[in-house]
Amino acid sequence: MSQLKVSFLPHQEFLTINIRLLQRRVEEEMGIIKSGFSFIVGTACGVYIAQNYNVPNVRKLFNTSLVVAKHIEENYRKPKKRDDDE
């Protein structure tokens, strides 16, 4: 009958590994809190700026630029080559 060898980590290494795992978990949770805080502050600043300053309508600006780009493309496009065989 073969004997199973079970090796146990010494207490110091075991505790060191657990402390590292706990530090990673805390860092991950702090990352979520920091990013959430940044998002809330950014949203609050955006609302304040939108209410108190004359901010251009981005959707209208985008649509206007799209119309201008289509107009330029249609007017300055190279003509299609015609096949001489047809």
Structure description:
The structure is a single chain. It contains two helices and no strands. The chain starts with 10 loop residues before the first helix and ends in a 10-residue tail after the last helix. The protein has one domain. The longest helix is centred in the middle third of the chain and has 42 residues, at 11-52. The radius of gyration is 32 Å and the shape is elongated. By secondary structure, the protein is an all-alpha fold.
Describe the structure in brief.
With 86 residues, the protein is mostly helical. Helices cover 71% and strands 0% of the residues.
In DSSP terms, counting alpha (H) and pi (I) runs of 4 or more, how many helices?
2
Shape from CA axes? elongated
Strand content: under 5%
Q: Any low-confidence stretches, pLDDT <50, length ≥5?
A: none
Order of helices and strands: HH
What is the β-strand count? 0
